[in-house]
């Protein structure tokens, strides 16, 4: 399988960008302020410091028909996914890339707000 772009939407509407690993069905924890920065670190992400806080986020992933993780948290200061949960199938799972396959299929409407859908 392949990797795919993702976007994390914070409660205040801020969008952060990252990468989903389709082979392992997990998200890399690293987030970036732009799609260009995420692409520049594709499959080569720097180490992360400890998160300093967690805030709720929704994550949309351009994988297959699209995936949405609705119960995630991110740290906006250290730019990382802190936790994620698929309430239907998986318990909270600690790992380097903490997000399992998502609960909802398809991308959320907010994902398209700025017209940035990754082209093949």
Describe, in plain words, how this protein is organized in 3D:
With 120 residues, the protein is mainly beta. It has one domain. It contains one helix and seven strands, in the order E-E-E-H-E-E-E-E. Strands 1, 2, 3, 4, 5, 6 and 7 form a seven-stranded antiparallel sheet that branches. Strand 5 and strand 6 form a beta hairpin. The radius of gyration is 13 Å and the shape is globular. About 15% of the residues have low confidence.
Structural class computed from helices and strand pairing: mainly beta
Rg, please? Answer: 13 Å
Tally of contiguous helical segments = 1
Global mean pLDDT: 78
Spatial gap, N to C terminus: 15 Å
Helicity level: under 10%
What's the helix-strand series? EEEHEEEE
Strand content: 25-35%
Main pleated sheet: 7 strands, antiparallel
Task: Give the CA-based shape.
Answer: globular
How many domain modules?
1
Total count of strands:
7
Uncertain ranges? 86-103
Quick tags:
120 residues; 7 strands; mainly beta
Explain the layout of strands and helices:
Layout: E1 3-10, E2 15-21, E3 26-27, H1 35-40, E4 55-61, E5 67-75, E6 80-83, E7 104-105
Antiparallel strand pairs: 1-2, 1-4, 2-3, 4-5, 5-6, 5-7
Summarize this, please?
With 120 residues, this protein is mainly beta. It is 5% helix and 32% strand.
């Amino acid at each position: 399988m392949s990797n795919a772009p993702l976007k994390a939407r914070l409660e205040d509407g801020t969008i952060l960008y990252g990468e989903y690993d389709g082979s392992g069905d997990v998200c890399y924890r690293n987030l970036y302020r732009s799609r260009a920065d995420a692409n520049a670190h594709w499959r080569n992400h720097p180490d992360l410091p400890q998160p300093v806080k967690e805030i709720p986020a929704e994550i949309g992933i351009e994988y297959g028909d699209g995936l949405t993780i609705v119960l995630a948290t991110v740290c906006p200061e250290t730019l990382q996914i802190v936790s994620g949960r698929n309430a239907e199938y998986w318990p909270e799972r600690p790992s380097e890339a903490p997000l399992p396959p998502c609960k909802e299929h398809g991308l959320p409407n907010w994902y398209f707000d700025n017209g940035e859908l990754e082209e093949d």
